[in-house]
Amino acid sequence: MPTLPEEKKPALKDKSFYGLKLGILGGGQLGRMLIQAASDYNVHCFVLDPDSSAPCKGISKEFVNGNLLDFDTVYNFGKTVDLLTIEIEHVNVDALEKLQKEGLTIFPQPEIIRMVQDKGLQKEFYKKNNIPTSDFTLINMKSEIKTFPIVQKLRKLGYDGKGVLKLNSELDLEKAFNEPCILEKAVDIEKEISIIVSRNLSGEVKLFPAIELVFKEEANLVDYLFSPASISETIKVKANEIALNLAKALNIVGILAVEMFISKKGEILVNEIAPRPHNSGHHTIEGNFTSQFEQHLRAVLNLPLGETGMIMPAAMVNLLGEKGYEGEAKFIGIEEILKIPGVYIHLYGKKYTRSNRKMGHVTILDEDINSAFKKVKLIKEKVKVIS
Ligand code: ADP
């Protein structure tokens, strides 16, 4: 995988950070929280996003409205910054490669972004590097599906569970995707965990403690999480080793979220990776000594990585648009939950809600996991995003 010539150091202006222009491709909530961290380093964030009212609009130094998949748009945007990063991987990589050739520092490296854009290439990468993952085959059309049950995933452009189908029998073929996909063995999942690993250009690597994800069943997207994951020491050690091996095999500069399944048989299988801040690290803003966002900055600026340990156990609840509501967002129940000790609110500034749209999140710090769980339930019951 990618190697970086020594001279490809981030373009830090005499290391004072004054006026360093960091370009961020994508202006959603991940970019917004990255900007919040960047302001402490006096790094000026330039953002490109197709949505003229994206969460980063209004808090970025420069906001450019444009298509992340368009070569010229990404290339021209890249020409205005000192250092470029992403908050979403669906971007025009040809433009990034040209910018890199012309001397722009881009982290994570464009080759990594290209690989991660395609779940088929991701799976092949795991196989080649002895990273455990569920068995799979690659297909081009649905007539190639012969065995059931099976999980079908679009190779490209899937997110938040869109692009993932569980096919139980031939009867489900009607709804199956008829384009390039992965067919994956359905895993009997005991738990889903995530580990965020960070690596800077000097090769320093640090892991955040594993967390446990709970998915909203009908939507295949994260409902809430607990930090730390309740897993055995053996699993913890093995999962950390897998995350470290991945970061090293990729030679990544930045942070990498590694989502894994723990099967009922105790296997650890990598599901997918994301070379950027991730939903599974939101609790680190309050719960850990360094947030994932600050860590990403430190890594791409080639600064010493921050301490990743927990300050306190935490839970994080995604505030998702209530089913059946579409229109200007209204938040209900916020005042009530702010009375609970250890509760921190993050609203992403999205004007419009729709079913299951990520509108914000709430972090809960609590020494006691049972008490944190009760607070999660209460928040889910009290807070609603409607229109
Ligand atoms: P996305 O990229 O849209 O988040 P994922 O590949 O992470 O999609 O899949 C979403 C969710 O679907 C997973 O978190 C998991 O709950 C379920 N899932 C995915 N692959 C499998 C599998 N092979 N077996 C069982 N469940 C799966």
Feature tags:
binds adenosine-5'-diphosphate; 25% helix; alpha+beta; D-amino Acid Aminotransferase, Chain A, domain 1; single chain; 387 residues; 9-stranded antiparallel beta sheet; 5-stranded parallel beta sheet
Q: How many domains, as an integer?
A: 3
Under the CATH scheme, which class of the largest domain? Answer: Alpha Beta
CATH architectural category of the largest domain: 2-Layer Sandwich
Which consecutive residue ranges, at least 5 long each, have pLDDT under 50?
Answer: 2-11
The CATH topology assignment of the largest domain is: D-amino Acid Aminotransferase, Chain A, domain 1
| Gyration radius over CA | 20 Å
First-residue to last-residue Cα separation: 47 Å
Number of helices: 10
Helix % is 10-25%
Instruction: Determine the strand fraction and express it as a percent band.
Output: 25-35%
Q: Structural class, please?
A: alpha+beta
**What is the number of beta strands?**
22
Task: Give average pLDDT, whole number.
Answer: 94
Task: Report the bound ligands by name, code or SMILES.
Answer: adenosine-5'-diphosphate
Bulk shape: globular
State the assembly state of the protein chains.
single chain
Taking the sheet with the most strands, its summary is: 9 strands, antiparallel
